[in-house]
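stage 2 :: seqdesign
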């Protein structure tokens, strides 16, 4: 049931149907009562709708759950959001002070730890426990690529998701006949989410920039992860929206001069 509500929420977001998104999240809040992300997103929607009072109430609820679950830093960050909306909010001020004292005490009492390098946690799975992430990586496939080798190719089918484990990669797309480098990916970056979320062919090629190692997560495994942790789907949707905005900005900066030259009757010489 949770998955259906999350899907309804993301579909509403795509259509900018804030009322529909809010209703889906309220249904979710009855199913996932202890999921702070649900109440956080309700607050975000209320903000978009210009309802600061309900946004603040939702953020307070999310911060309370985070504090109860031991995520004091995240709770403190939410109280800071509340204080940006209402600088004189007494509850947020008091709770922030309490959390800062607790965090400071925790730092003082914490025993020194050996400086061992751990595997970085992909931001996509930041809400998961370490043992859960380890199980996902064990079920996924690790692939290595040499410089200039293609990981995925624009126009191909496929719905695997990829995470850069080490190295860098270039994102290349062809728009209006022009080859555009949209981004450079590095450790922890996710790609392939558009095909997974929409079912469309790959919208860009991803090419290794030097030695590259990626984690490939196939659809079946990713759906299993999302079913247990709906927050992963929420993060994927955020990646998708951010990538869409970045692509539009990059495309506009690259294509506008070409359009201007064509409209002025200037012949563009291909290189």
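stage 2 :: out
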């Amino acid at each position: 049931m949770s998955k259906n509500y999350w899907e309804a929420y993301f579909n509403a977001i795509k259509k900018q149907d804030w009322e529909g998104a809010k209703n889906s999240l309220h249904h979710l809040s009855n199913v996932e009562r202890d999921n702070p992300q649900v109440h956080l997103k309700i607050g975000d929607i209320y903000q978009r709708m210009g309802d600061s009072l309900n946004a603040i109430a939702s953020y307070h609820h999310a911060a309370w759950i985070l504090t109860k679950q031991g995520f004091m830093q995240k709770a403190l960050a939410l109280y800071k959001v509340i204080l940006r909306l209402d600088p004189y909010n007494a509850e947020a001020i008091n709770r922030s002070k309490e959390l800062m004292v607790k965090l400071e005490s925790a730092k003082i009492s914490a025993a020194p730890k050996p400086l061992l390098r751990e595997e970085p946690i992909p931001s996509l799975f930041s809400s998961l426990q370490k043992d859960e992430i380890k199980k996902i990586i064990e079920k996924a496939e690790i692939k290595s690529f040499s410089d200039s080798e293609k990981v995925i190719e624009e126009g191909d089918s496929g719905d695997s998701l990829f995470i850069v484990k080490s190295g860098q990669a270039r994102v290349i797309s062809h728009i209006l006949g022009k080859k555009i480098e949209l981004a450079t990916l590095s450790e922890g970056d996710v790609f392939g989410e558009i095909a997974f979320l929409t079912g469309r062919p790959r919208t860009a090629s991803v090419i290794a920039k030097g030695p590259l190692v990626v984690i490939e997560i196939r659809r079946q495994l990713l759906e299993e992860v999302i079913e247990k942790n709906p927050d992963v789907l929420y993060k994927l949707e955020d990646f998708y929206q951010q990538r869409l905005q970045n692509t539009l900005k990059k495309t506009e900066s690259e294509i506008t001069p070409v359009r201007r030259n064509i409209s002025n009757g200037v012949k563009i010489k291909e290189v």
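stage 3 :: structure notes
- The beta strands are 141-145, 150-152, 161-166, 169-175, 178-185, 190-191, 205-208, 212-217.
- The two ends are 54 Å apart (CA to CA).
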